[in-house]
Write a structure and sequence with these properties.
By secondary structure, this protein is an all-alpha fold. The protein has helices at 2-32, 50-55, 58-90, 94-105, 112-123, 128-135, 149-173, 177-185, 190-201, 203-219, 222-227, 235-244, 249-282, and strands at residues 36-37, 43-44. The protein has a domain at 54-234: MetI-like (MetI-like fold). It contains 13 helices and two strands; from the N terminus they run αββαααααααααααα. The chain has a two-stranded antiparallel sheet. It starts with a helix and ends with a helix. Pfam families: BPD_transp_1 (PF00528).
């Protein structure tokens, strides 16, 4: 009994936090989906399935596909850039490693909006990137870099790249160096040792990093609004507009629930894949 009380005491604050800030809001969102929108917004407590029928309308499905595509490209680029970065940091001397890690997380000490507005300064027609391109004679006139899908991807990539690098670094840094020595003694060249030893051992961290980047990229609405100029709607913008502009809370809740369900499935796949990979490593 004493042990149970100790566990309850230790778990109580965390469980209370999760219940108040995750379980209760999700329950409210779930309950809103079955009601109707009032004439001037709000809720009319009359059950309906119209919200679910509207959610599969091609117009909204196109927004979801666009969001998944942008988040997927961002995740892929983060993996292609983040893996070499984490690999280099993991093999730096101890002092240089600390400096590199501090530099990696340093942008998080700045407000997210300020960092996003900085990209507007960089990508605008009179910005630094266009000034450099025209100054070097690479283009005759400024390029339309801002308010495009590549601009959104660049902003998301800059914002969430550390979330890819850090899990990969943790996995690479704790790897046993004797495994690579054994591979070399067996005649494996560095490239082959990397593909047969290092890469398989970091697959769980790769999956974790992909989830860490994909999930916030999919739901982000600030970057598409500022760097996309409202021309490219993502699901986060759609949910926000339903709640704050259209005042259609039931439909906004339905869209939010669909995104949450998709992300839960993604997390379950990641957890299952991670267990399979770890099981194969032990085998």
């Amino acid at each position: 009994m004493k042990a149970k009380l100790e566990r309850i005491t230790l778990l109580g604050p965390g469980l209370g936090y999760l219940t108040a800030l995750m379980v209760v809001p999700l329950a409210l969102v779930l309950s809103y989906t079955i009601f109707q929108r009032g004439r001037f917004g709000g809720l009319v407590y009359e059950p309906t399935t119209e919200n679910f029928r509207r959610a599969v309308d091609p117009l909204y499905l196109d927004v979801l596909v666009t969001s998944v595509w942008i988040a997927g490209v961002t995740t892929l680029l983060a993996l292609l850039i983040g893996y070499p970065t984490a690999y280099v940091i993991a093999h730096l001397p101890k002092r240089a490693k600390t400096i590199a890690l501090v530099a990696l997380v340093l942008p998080f000490w700045t407000n997210f909006l300020i960092r996003t507005y900085a990209w507007i300064v960089l990508l605008s027609p009179a910005g630094l990137v266009n000034d450099a391109l025209t100054g070097w004679g690479l283009v005759d006139e400024p390029l339309q870099l801002l308010y495009t899908k590549p601009a959104i991807i660049a902003g998301l990539l800059y914002s969430y790249l550390p979330l890819m690098v850090l899990p990969l670094y943790a996995s690479l840094e704790k790897q046993d160096g004797h495994l690579l020595e054994a591979a070399a003694n067996l005649g494996a060249r560095p490239a082959r040792a990397f593909w047969t030893v290092t890469l398989p051992l970091t697959l769980p961290a790769m999956l974790t990093g992909c989830v860490f980047v994909f999930v916030p990229s999919l739901g982000n609405f600030v970057v598409p609004e500022l760097l996309g100029g409202g021309r490219t709607a993502m699901v986060g913008n759609l949910v926000r507009d339903q709640f704050l502009k259209a005042r259609d809370w039931p439909f906004g809740a339905t869209l939010a629930l669909a995104v949450v369900a998709m992300l839960v499935v993604l997390l379950l796949i990641q957890a299952w894949s991670g267990r399979r990979l770890q099981g194969s490593d032990h085998a």
